[in-house]
Amino acid sequence: MTWKKNILITGGAGFIGSHLVRLFVTKYPHYRIINLDKLTYAGNLENLKDIESKENYVFEKADIVNKEELIEIFDNYQITDVIHLAAESHVDRSIEGPMEFVMTNVVGTVNLLQVAKDMWKEGEHVFHHVSTDEVYGSLGDDGLFEETTPYDPRSPYSASKASSDHFVRAFYHTYNLPVKISNCSNNYGSHQFPEKLIPLMINNIVLKKPLPIYGKGDNIRDWLWVVDHAKAIDEIFHKGKIGESYNIGGLNEWKNIDLVKYLCRLLDKKLGREEGESEQLITFVKDRSGHDKRYAIDASKIEKELGWKPSVTFEQGLEKTVDWYLENKEWINKVTSGDYQDYYKKMYQNKS
Ligand code: NAD
Ligand code: DAU
Question: Angle at Cα 32 formed by Cα 29 and Cα 37, nearest 5°?
């Protein structure tokens, strides 16, 4: 079989990566998708059980910090394009230990850029770097992040992602590497590791455990269904302009406390509990250090230029998400056994 493209997706066993891999493997049977993942605590091949035997899908366990492994994979599969998602992604972990974030998010990204630059001497290629809105810093009550908003990262995680974005742009300007960058707001959906707000709260509500809200719960995030993020990446990868950045977001701002209360009400109904029962689990805990106040994305560029917009409302997406977690207890039990218990203790025991 001659493949039209050999696309390397890094971090394809993670939350967003697995949704993207599934979309590309099923939508583009003439592309070969090579999923490169180190399988950290956040990488889980069970996320891809339904597509793992497809002819156009290959998995390679590798670490982007190891350049030799990357060269071998580029060589073996004649990689034509990269969609780069592999990262350490959790802000709280970056506060506890920034160096892992420097290694994977900065050094790993530069390794990938160098290998792509050295291997792609001719032909058409795309290096699509998947990034975050957190690079823009924190908003006050008004305004939205635009593609031209100056970078102002404030956590070790966002500093590492901002740095990787700068390197991607540097490789475009210095070496003409054909790059694209997307900066997305908070994702939610199935298969998200329960360290992030929404799956952590769903799991705790089900288990009747305290619901730890940082500070007063008045921080604001702009939530987008993960499948819509994957579709946006598809549009940018195929139709976006080389050298440009695209913001992706849902125009869907929620205060953390309102979101958690909404989840409580939804789960009370689904679990046949009394109205208001789960809300009693809400516990206000010590705030995250340097907690960014508000994120909100202006997604008008991708809407106007590429015709992308979210396909579901937040209410629809959240219901699908909650249903998935209720129907996949085995998945959640597996990922929350072992190391997760230690993580949870370490992160939350001194917060109350
Ligand atoms: P995730 O933590 O669920 O998954 C990250 C994946 O990367 C895992 O499969 C992990 O095994 C892999 N990985 C980590 N280090 C690696 C290494 N050194 N080499 C190879 N693989 C490695 O993350 P996610 O939430 O799916 O985020 C994916 C990407 O999207 C990240 O780059 C993140 O910054 C970005 N992003 C996330 C969100 C969000 O809301 N989750 C929003 C915008 C952008
Ligand atoms: O904006 C995009 C970013 O969104 C991504 O780049 C990151 O990879 C992703 O982790 C996410 O970062 P956040 O820090 O916004 O997500 P998190 O789910 O950790 O937290 C969401 C909000 O909820 C935030 O204001 C902190 C708060 N929170 C979080 C947890 C885990 C709590 O109040 N309690 C909690 O237990």
Answer: 125
